[in-house]
Amino acid sequence: MDDSHISADLDRVLFTAEELDARLAEIAAEIDAEYRDKDVLLVGVLTGAVMVMADLSRALTTHCSMDWMAISSYGSGTQSSGVVRILKDLNTDISGRHVLVVEDIIDTGLTLSYLVSNLKSREPASLEIMTMFRKPEAAENAVDVKWVGFDIPNEFVVGYGLDYGGRYRNLRCLGSLAPHVYS
Ligand code: PRP
User: Fold this and answer.
1) Quick check: 62 and 29 in contact, CB under 8 A?
2) To the nearest whole number, what is the mean pLDDT of the chain?
3) Rounded CA gap, 31 and 148, in Å?
4) Distance from residue 39's CA to the centre of ligand 1 (Å)
5) pLDDT-flagged residues of the chain (< 70)
6) Distance between CA atoms of residues 46 and 53, nearest Å
7) Is the CB of residue 152 below 6 angstroms from any atom belonging to ligand 1?
8) Residues marked as catalytic
9) Which atom of ligand 1 is nearest to the CA of 163?
């Protein structure tokens, strides 16, 4: 789905599919260099990270493995509380492995704070984070993120894996949702 198919639902396009592709290619080159002699395990956080995982992994020129976690955060309304429950754990024992967590977006950073401490307790050889998007509030929760696609303003964004009510994940670009859709 392109923005032209849902133009009434979007205020603006923040990044086109081509811009997302180009940035991912840059990041993939850095990740290739970092893990050239290592066997990296990409850990995707369902569901939003499906698109970035698919594109990043295929942009790599080195071997990688993939695994997935599903987590749910408890919170009141739209606010995340940072209390996280694992709905689907990894299939892989990450002890001694080089792990790269792949996320679509860091908003408050609470999800990743939990995830990082949980994964570190499993004693991986290394643990790094790549996120395609990061919002300003993430700065309040110190999570050491090695690769960030784009820092974005605090807008209600959809597309490239990000949803509203389950929709828009399959939008190729990242767009700002028009208020009439969610108000
Ligand atoms: C999103 C995103 C992150 C999390 C970030 O997932 O994929 O995992 O929120 O938010 P935080 O930094 O405030 O903790 P979401 O819970 O919306 O699930 P989804 O990927 O299935 O849409």
Assistant:
1) no
2) 93
3) 12
4) 27
5) 74-82
6) 10
7) no
8) 107
9) 22
